[in-house]
Amino acid sequence: MNAYTLYYSPDSANLIVRMALEEMNLPYIDYLINRAKKEHLAPDFLKLNPQGLLPILISPYQAEPLFETGAILWNLATQHNALKPHQENNSASCLKYLFYISNTLHADLRALFYTERYFDRPTDELIQLLRQCLSQRVRKHFDLLNQEIANRGGPWLLGQELTVCDLYVAACARWAMLYPLPHLLEWNAITKADFLRWPHLLWILQSLEQRPRIRAAILKEDIAQNNQNEFSDPSMPQPKSGSVLG
Ligand SMILES: N[C@@H](CCC(=O)N[C@@H](CS)C(=O)NCC(=O)O)C(=O)O
Prior knowledge:
binds glutathione, 50% helix, alpha+beta, globular, 2 domains
């Protein structure tokens, strides 16, 4: 089988794609992009993804480079008929939640991580205000997802089987606890304590971090912790290569 190529920077959204590649046991090579050196804004990178964002996946089955995490996950799941529900109705659910996570949770998290970019003249007060709103929105998204798992019977987001949606949610949960960098003014940051109120989500985080293929992905991203609680109780990684924050 021909190999995929994953463009990555440690702990960026490529983590989700890597977990999918590992869980599906697909051959791939990875190509490090140093965000601190702005390699994601270099002309050669922009030819592959004009947004200047990670991840990019080069697929042996597709003419174009793939970008957008949700689209990459769906492409892998359908190409290999893996990490997706096998019944047609449930395939629609999988796509529905991928869009939901991508358009709402991930999009709001990006604004939490890069809040200053949303203003021409950012001030501490503006950043605090937007972060307060965003953290409330993100809590609502996690509330909704936790409730959906309960309604659908769990234990995974779509039922009995692990799907790409669980991988996406887990990375978002990790980043929500880690990456909005501390700010001068109080803004009600999301913490591990929040996840105690979302037991179904917490189960997914704790289950994933124990799976051998997910541990392989964590090691290859160079974000492993001694306690192996990278999703349920994350701490700031210090990867040897590349920069976590660009
Ligand atoms: N909508 C994109 C978002 C990807 C994204 O936010 N990538 C981040 C890393 S996690 C990135 O490349 N950030 C660089 C930047 O914004 O300058 C997706 O789903 O793939």
